[in-house]
# Entry
Amino acid sequence: MIYDFDTPVERFGTDSIKWNVKEGELPMWVADMDFKTAPEIIEAIGRRLEHGVFGYSGIGDEWYEAYINWWATRHGYKMEKKWLMFTTGVIPGISSTVRKLTTPGEKVLIQTPVYNVFTNCAVNNGCEVVTNPLRYENGSYSMDFDDLEQKLSDPQVTLMILCNPQNPAGRIWDRETLAEVGRLCHENNVTVVSDEIHCDITTPGVSYVPFASCSDICRDNSITLLAPTKAFNLAGLKTACISVPNSRLRHKIWRAINTDEVAEPNSFAVTAAVTAFSKCGEWLDQLRKYIYTNRVRVTEFIKENIPVLYVVPGDATYLLWIDISKTGYKSHYVAEHIRKTTGLFLTEGVHYGIDGDDFLRLNVACPKVTLEDGLQRLKEGILRLNCDGA
# Structure
């Protein structure tokens, strides 16, 4: 079956956070897609809707089997049923974990630039954020292990939140890199929380490496957050999974998510996840090809038409990390200028830490006609930057 990703979907008037913009503006910022989810998921939800009774829902065996089979076949990683727990979202799961495994005043380590809500999860629970900035050299990112080891050696650092694959740069961490993170955290008694929500949106032919698969140390000292929500555009259904192989750690997380009341599904959360992971592999493969084509298009367009910008190469997510350092302006000014002059709404890189202030984030999960509109607006906005700038 050939799936349609070219037809635009009208999202105004649907209470969409992404599309809560002024008329004429084009939002290409927040991480949700402008595609309908897989028709198989829509059909399954429709059948559940027709039943008409929406009482309290539980978790059946098919939910566990869907996750286990998907990760085994897609990512070569065998999980066990007892490891898995439902939660309403990756961020609720991370927040509950921070609350349970730290005490106020302790420190949580993150690697910037990174998804800004990681900081909120720590600060909102009374913790201090410690950053291990990623190295940006020759147009790509790597980990600074010397700095990481030094930061982890602080006894006040008790938790590390890892972004795997990395958002916003789309970096897929290799097995050796992840194993070294695991070793250093283990030696310093720091537990790893691995956010792997973007793992299924990768370049065709490329897969990510689950952190817990890298070594026994990684497996036994980690909590992994998984979900179908990014890959299948289901964020509004509030459905995710926590995988914790270590039994004592798992019991703590089970208590955390139940205490925080984020462990019960709504009437459609299980249906959507099971259908996505059991029936929608071909849809996802076609989506990945479409997004990859959009990635290539943006990279080539910018190289040919806006050479003052540079797209950081990435093999994961539908988010492009664009280096604007040669413009001479920082991200807030450039993003504000582009939106004011063209209506194109991008995310300013400083949201992801001061290390991101020379970047913008662009969402390419949209039909090609939308993408072309966005590229022309981006070109106009950058060309007018020096003319209109201070």
Q: What stands out?
A: The longest helix spans residues 281-305.
